[in-house]
UniProtKB/TrEMBL annotation:
Enzyme class: oxidoreductase
Subcellular location(s) of the protein: Mitochondrion matrix
Stated name of the protein: 2-oxoisovalerate dehydrogenase subunit alpha
CC per GO annotation: mitochondrial matrix
Coiled-coil stretches: none
Catalytic activity entry: N(6)-[(R)-lipoyl]-L-lysyl-[protein] + 3-methyl-2-oxobutanoate + H(+) = N(6)-[(R)-S(8)-2-methylpropanoyldihydrolipoyl]-L-lysyl-[protein] + CO2
Similarity annotation: Belongs to the BCKDHA family.
UniProt EC number: 1.2.4.4
Primary role: The branched-chain alpha-keto dehydrogenase complex catalyzes the overall conversion of alpha-keto acids to acyl-CoA and CO(2). It contains multiple copies of three enzymatic components: branched-chain alpha-keto acid decarboxylase (E1), lipoamide acyltransferase (E2) and lipoamide dehydrogenase (E3).
GO molecular function: branched-chain 2-oxo acid dehydrogenase activity; metal ion binding
Cofactors: thiamine diphosphate
Species for this entry: Amphiprion percula
Residue stretches making up the Dehydrogenase E1 component domain: 108-407
Matches recorded under Gene3D superfamilies: 3.40.50.970
Length: 449
């Protein structure tokens, strides 16, 4: 009985403790609720329409109706121009007021490039070189942009910017040497034709894969920014290359790292045989700039002054403000994509003739010069004759030069020749000696073995 009485007392104590604890919790809960009710009564009425998004990934407002953004939300990014098709200045305040000497230099570079293209294109058709790509119709994008840059600015080209290099002073002999892969070629005969490069002229050697130059340009521009060099980088590419993944990487890196970089897109209507209508659905390439937080402009690429003005201002601000710019130059590729292409298979002759005869950057600039009395028919005939003679002389010199030294196949890979390369070199020369009737070594530059 004593044990039972003891258990009852213990149970009663525990029950009393539980009731006390529950009572205290209930009291605190009632006090908390009273505080919340009091606080609510003290707050101002809440208006959800004034609520602002706090998400860190975008700048926007809330909306309370379902609506998808239409791709044609605006009518289209306008195309900046200075001259009309007849070479007349549309808005005098936009005239860059370049000197006669400068404008003549523009014209002579554009036409000299055109002449070199014709001769080297014919050379390939005759089997004298293996490959070529012309620049017909896009000369204004080259010269207008090149003239707006500082000589120390670094250029990353694609494969149709020969005019940029020509404007910077790259001699005809070196253009020919590269295409002919002779002993004078700065690339030592290792690259296919039209893959130019010049360390002295700050022109990075062109590579074949599309769009690889975009992230490379972003990296170079970031390095320049860190070193505070007061230099800019310009990166050229076609609208087809803008579909590559490397294009996204380059554009996004340059924007987030705030690099002094000009992305210059030559939108010439075709990515080899693919027209722009099949290449993208948005409003060209300039429309992508805002998505990357990048200042963008679309210009008339057949108007050398419009290209000059846009590139000059973009270059100035890129260096001063450390930010990238996107320029989309609307132009037209009059020639075939390359000597490996027949563009008549995917576009009409009438279409090509329109751009060649009615809206060509060279004829537009000639109209401008003629109206000012800076150029005449006699000047045109004389210059065409002189420029063709100059190109032909360089062409003939290139053909007579020897091929590069075969030893150069093994150099520039490592600072010092490695055992495996030594073995390969010895194997090559054993093969050449064994079958020397097939290897006319007198056609190659002096070699040592």
């Amino acid at each position: 009985m004593a044990a039972v009485s003891s258990m009852r007392k213990m149970y009663g104590l525990c029950f009393h403790a539980v009731r006390q604890t529950a009572g205290r919790k209930a009291s605190r809960l009632l006090q908390h609720r009273a505080f919340r009710v009091t606080a609510v009564h003290q707050q101002q009425p809440f208006d959800s329409s004034l609520e602002k998004p706090q998400f860190p990934g975008a700048s926007a407002e809330f909306v309370d109706h379902l609506e998808f953004i239409q791709p044609n939300v605006i009518s289209g990014i306008p195309i900046y121009r200075v001259m009309d098709r007849q070479g007349k200045i549309v808005n005098p305040s936009e005239d860059p007021q370049l000197s006669k000497e400068t404008v003549l230099n523009f014209y002579q570079n554009m036409t000299l490039l055109n002449t070199m293209d014709r001769i080297l294109y014919e050379s390939q058709r005759q089997g004298r070189i293996s490959f070529y790509m012309t620049n017909y119709g896009e000369e204004g994008t080259h010269v207008g942009s090149a003239a707006a840059l500082d000589p120390n600015d670094l250029v990353f080209g694609q494969y149709r910017e020969a005019g940029v290099l020509m404007y910077r002073g790259f001699p005809l002999d070196l253009f020919m040497a590269q295409c002919y892969a002779n002993a004078d070629d700065l690339g030592k005969g290792r690259q296919m034709p039209v893959h130019y490069g010049s360390r002295d002229l700050n022109f990075v050697t062109i590579s074949s894969p599309l769009a690889t130059q975009l992230p490379q340009a972003a990296g170079a521009a970031y390095a320049m920014k860190r070193e505070n060099l007061n230099r800019a980088v310009i990166c050229y590419f076609g609208e087809g290359a803008a579909s590559e993944g490397d294009a996204h990487a380059g554009l996004n890196f340059s924007a987030t790292l705030e690099c002094p970089l000009i992305f210059f897109c030559r939108n010439n209507g075709y990515a080899i045989s693919t027209p722009t209508s099949e290449q993208y659905r948005g409003d060209g390439i300039a429309a992508r700039g805002p998505g990357y937080g990048m200042l963008s402009i679309r210009v008339d690429g057949n108007d050398v002054f419009a290209v000059y003005n846009a590139t000059k201002e973009a270059r100035r601000r890129a260096v001063a403000e450390n930010q990238p710019f996107l320029i989309e130059a609307m132009t037209y590729r009059i020639g075939h994509h390359s000597t490996s292409d027949d563009s008549s298979a995917y576009r009409s002759v009438d279409e090509v003739n329109y751009w060649d005869k009615q809206d060509h950057p060279i004829s537009r600039l000639r109209h401008y010069m003629t109206a000012r009395g800076w150029w005449s028919e006699d000047d045109e005939r004389s210059w065409r004759k002189q420029s063709r003679k100059t190109v032909m002389e360089a062409f003939e010199r290139a053909e007579k030069r020897l091929k590069p030294n075969p030893e150069l196949l093994f150099t520039d890979v490592y600072q010092e020749m490695t055992p495996n390369l030594d073995k390969q070199r010895e194997s090559l020369w054993r093969h050449v000696q064994q079958y020397k009737e097939h290897y006319p070594l007198d056609l190659y530059d002096k070699y040592q073995h």
